[in-house]
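U., I forgot to send this yesterday:
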Amino acid sequence: MILHISSILLMWLLLSSFSPPIKATFNLTLPHQHPYPEAVVHQVQRKINASLSRREVLSKDQSSACLTGNPVDDCWRCDPNWSANRQKLADCGIGFGRDAMGGKGGQIYVVTDSSDRDPANPVPGTLRHAVIQDVPLWIVFSGDMTIVQKHELIFNSYKTVDGRGANVHVTGHGCITLQYISNVIIHNIHVHHCKPSGNTNIRASPTHVGWRGVSDGDGISIFGSRKIWIDHCSLSYCTDGLIDAIMGSTGITISNNHFAHHDEVMLLGHNDKYLPDKGMQVTIAFNHFGEGLVQRMPRCRLGYIHVVNNDFTQWEMYAIGGSANPTINSQGNRYTAPADPNAKEVTKRVDTNEGEWSDWNWRTDGDIMVNGAFFVPSGGGMSAQYAEASSVQPKSAVQIDHLTMYSGVFGDPRDNGDLFPGYTGGGTVTSATNKGGSSGGSSGGDGGDFFGMIFGGGSSQAAPPPSSILVFVSTFLSLLIIFILDTTTNHAILLSLL
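Result:
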């Protein structure tokens, strides 16, 4: 970490010697982070309001029966010939992941084989063979299928998995991994009963096979990736998280999904001290958080999270949690509290006392509280003005129903039924314990072997500590560079780097 900070400061010193001083107005910790997240919030609200207005104006027109006011669905579903122009979907994204191109412009790849016999040498026609290709692909399915994976399904960039028109299930070992890639759309598939796997060779591209350590058993794992859009999926019953985004991932939209039967639903951020996650920006919109959920909808660290027009119908511990000062902007959601009188609060500051979190920007605006639910705001969220974000008029329960009526895979029941009764393909619902609440813990169960996943080996042993000489030299260089910066730049810029 010391070497990493020294490198950043040294780069800044070199750049400042070749360019005039610049007034620092914001601090970008990731190269693809949006500099003005509130502009994205404004854009999302404009699209929602435009779709709702169009629906109201055309509500008596028989030809507008497809309109729900949901800007994603209304963008493509009203075309009766949508299947002839599937790639129109790529133009319908909203929020921080709206620029995810997926396989737009690429060829259509039809998955005809549901097998996963050899992850190191996938067979043409399988989903694994499709997602590792080096070119943009729009991936569709020849018919209904259940793909039981032997190990992680590792994606390459510029891929769309489009399950419309088929009943597609991805389950088994590892499930979906998006690691150090960009521009992926995952749409209209079931992801469930995912279990850990690894300690094997898995192909990640046509030219590269790598050794993988043991995975966590996430439904969808987003690791150091950007421009990701997950839409209209149904997720449940995985060993770890249903969706986890860590290690500097950003530019993500999670929309129109149905989450059910799970403990730790969604984790956003690696650990409390992983500073690149300050640049994480995620939009969570029009999702249905349904039956059998316990916590983490989501659980956030450090970044900017926009939670808008979702329907939270169940939690056992809390709905939205966080640590390490994330910004949480909750707008136009419906929160229905459980019967438990001790679980009415929507929010949870994980292992943090009020003296620390009182200035965190957590805002509720236009949210609907049902059955005694309450949201505890803080920081800028305590005032009428909040970081220049446009206000959202409270939406009625009827509008929330319309906006989320098709959450999950199309054709699945909207209510809280169990989609997989009696399923024995693996995966468990972990106990309702608050794993990963400690400051500085790691992802998921906060003990995951993340770097073993990248560099191989299933061991969870810690790396050897740096030598005392290395630590001394690194510390000396850091202090020297800070002293030089302090004498050559203004204090505001220096503080923005620390």
